[in-house]
Structure formats: structure tokens, C-alpha cells
């Protein structure tokens, strides 16, 4: 359960990073701590950061979709089911990017603590989006 909350929190962070409105209050309420992730923060390769940016874009879309579904879900059990489904899709997006969930979460936490790292990831995401726009 803690892993699910950590991923969902990281997803909401990245959704915010990508300028998507997300409902962080409910998922942040249970809170998670991974102090050792911050210690590893500076050891991420450009490839890992690019994978994080790619996964973040996918997660932002998933998060936006499931935030709406969560708001529409009636009752605690229905909301839990929506969260579970969203989490599974987010895990898949992370794994499809080539990262492990723990690495994705560690990068997400490092970004919260390091504005320069956040800027690097944002620039990677923007450059990737620009390249996609020219590729058509």
C-alpha cells in the first residue's frame, strides 16, 4: 500500500510538473517518506531523467483521467477501486519507459528538493514535445 501511495504521490507531482491539475489532497493525506531516495538524488543519468520525463507525460494523462473518475466515484470502495486501477496503469507507464518504480519515485522526490534537477527534466520534456511536433 505504501508503494502505491508513493507512486500516486509521485504521479501527482509529475502531473503538476507537466501543468496538469491534480487532486493531491486525498493521496497526500497518507504521506510517505523515503529519506534514502534523497541521498541518491544526484546520481541519475540523463537517460533515466529522459525516461522519467517520458513516463511523467503518460502519467499526467492517466492522472487527469483518473482524477475525474475519482471525483465521480461514489463511496470509499469505488474510490479505492479507481485508485487501484490508476496505480496499475501508472506502474505500467513507468515500466514501459524503462525505469523501475522505485527509481521513478526517487527521481520524483529528488525533483521536489532540487530546483535545478526539476528544470533539467522540464527542459527534456519540452525538447521531446518539440521533437514530436516536428516529426509529423
From TrEMBL:
Residues 1-24 form the signal peptide. Residues 45-121 form the DUF4168 domain. Residues 63-90 form a coiled coil. Keywords: Coiled coil, Signal. This is DUF4168 domain-containing protein.
